[in-house]
């Protein structure tokens, strides 16, 4: 009885989730009349707009990851080591991007960094790109911070640092050669999640008016019939890949941490 | 028939038979421990009595009533778990009153009974506290009160002390036994700690591999273990080999010296039998010259001395192997130095023959 | 000596968090503060409550009310279905692999929101969508003839639920794991039926987690823009789309009304997140 109900719950979930995915896949294959084909994918791939925006978003994702790691890892390390009293405060700050809707944050950017402000970032394309990257880093902050924080919680930070210092290492060396390798898995998890968030992001890119993949998606949705489904399939596959890589990284870490 | 009667209980999980033909009768008001290493089936027996596991075969009777097919909530049994298992959303009074509330007892009566139970466990002021505000020992006492409040027919204790600090464990032992005696409630206590089992129980059931190896009073179990397993699992034991010289008279030789055991030996003449000695029956003779010819004495050399307070545990090497023995601490007699040549003596009637 | 003491008294340790502090200040706190402050000043920079008062027009109130209903309904449905799935996975006696598959799948689908989700939805329930055609050709049911419309309240709810369920599964599963088997057994031995155990112990224990997650799902849906825009082309007047259009420079004339809109959104998501945090703290206090 209980097991039947459980299977029923799972079945409802399967139907609810697989229908749209199957629908999306089926639809993306229907571009040629009367038979299934990859025409929609061919059309998408051949679109220079797709290539440009997709490339732009991948680049932004990578830059965001690097920037996020550079900002988050040293900070988490320092707070855990020297300023543990700041931790609740950090928790709060890094939770804020989940509380404040992204559209409000980007609204603030537009007002704060407009061409007539003290820091006119939106005045140039490069400045806006930088602003967009920072925005993405803010969006990813809750995930990145938590991933790294749990990663650092697992190692004895104080002892490792003192050991490295006693061997003559400086702060940069400690961070790069001792801390980072130990939280690499956590950082990787955060990185892939960041990638999944950034790649299809719409609101920031649209309101800052940058040629990213998200606005292209919306444009395609309004102007094309079968390509959007193909684009959705591609994005879904990318999300799967990111999650699979996170799982892989976690497995790898369990392997390396096995006691001998 | 006994008050609580377990008859031919068996339990298999798949191909793995964890309890094999288990029989036990417990009298009303008796405190019986199931003692054994992990995986011996003691917890499974307890869970079958509670009704969480259905026996593969066999019958469980309480006060003559066959409860084998009853669900746990129909058996009127009290149970205390290792991890307290207090309901975290209810305060102490609500926890203790839970069973009464389920049974539909009027609120005023519940209040009175809860107060009575809290007074009994020595926490009369704690009714409004929540479990997370209590220490481990307090939580376990509340769990005991909760189990006893509905006046169950049988009380089951599943390693209730293992999660606690050593000191609280010892004091709670006495407290549980006290309450059990006062209420006269029939109790099964599951533990892997032989000291707990021996100190608390009317009878101890030593279990191994899904069977009861021996059932008996603590004194009986400790001094007259029925099997090699019981002898080795309960208490510390020294083992020696002896060669049978006269099976009917119970005579063996150990290291060429003759020893007379209290009972006949079930082995052929010339056969080697395992002999066991508790550390407290071995006497240490510091001066080898004191031993007259003809007395049984093993020459030995002191290998280790452990000062435990009231007792000093000494390890001595003999030609027959290492032997541990216990000396009482006496301020005027310091323990022998390491490497000292001594003699070990023991009486034939203190020797346990291992089957 | 004096300079050296002063030198040492300076909070040098604070320097380590300076880059982060600068980052958070510039790109998170100041922009938000700017919006909040803007909601309370007029064109010439004087304090005023007029902007807030201006929110109380039928158009804006309707948009917020629609947003709230949409977020709440999708959160409630997501909560219920996600809870059922999580229960099935943890306590339903299903094979162990089911759990792994469900959790991984939830991880993916909870991140598969926004524009692509809208596309998948259109491809499924649009006028020539997979399910629409399936129902028409196999069962002779034309859902559009029956009055179904994707760009409607329930259409959007159905789309939102798609990312609400997996989020619920991800958050509530650890809480269900926290229900100890002994609680159930203790209740049973004390005479409780399965229903009594759930009513008196399990649900009260899970209560804070359930309520907290509901609040989180609500905030999650309330701030979501991309799915709605891709689906409705900013036709449906919900609060975030209203703000989006305002930022884009159409619809509303008064820029300070935009600040007030954003401020109201922060207040609503802030409250629901506050509920989440408080509830989570309560849940964690019980289950140590």
UniProtKB/TrEMBL annotation, chain B:
Start and end residues of each ABC transporter domain: 4-234
Gene3D superfamilies with a match to the protein in the record: 2.40.50.100, P-loop containing nucleotide triphosphate hydrolases (3.40.50.300)
Record-linked PROSITE patterns: ABC_TRANSPORTER_1 (PS00211), ABC_TRANSPORTER_2 (PS50893)
GO CC, alphabetical: ATP-binding cassette (ABC) transporter complex
Short name of any one Pfam family annotated for the protein: TOBE_2
Keywords: ATP-binding, Nucleotide-binding, Transport
Gene Ontology molecular function, alphabetical: ATP binding; ATP hydrolysis activity; transmembrane transporter activity
Biological processes, Gene Ontology terms: quaternary ammonium group transport
SMART domains, sorted: AAA
Protein name, entry field: ABC transporter ATP-binding protein
From TrEMBL, chain C:
UniProt-listed InterPro entries: MetI-like (IPR000515), MetI-like_sf (IPR035906)
Cell compartments where the protein resides: Cell membrane
Record GO cellular component, one term: plasma membrane
Keyword terms, alphabetized: Cell membrane, Membrane, Transmembrane, Transmembrane helix, Transport
Domain called ABC transmembrane type-1: residue spans: 64-276
Gene3D superfamilies documented for this protein: MetI-like
Membrane topology reported for the UniProt record: Multi-pass membrane protein
Listed transmembrane segments: 48-68, 75-98, 118-139, 151-176, 196-218, 225-244, 256-279
PROSITE patterns to which the protein is assigned, alphabetical: ABC_TM1
GO biological process, one term: transmembrane transport
Any Pfam family matching the protein: BPD_transp_1
Assigned protein family: Belongs to the binding-protein-dependent transport system permease family. CysTW subfamily.
Protein name as it appears in the record: Acriflavin resistance protein
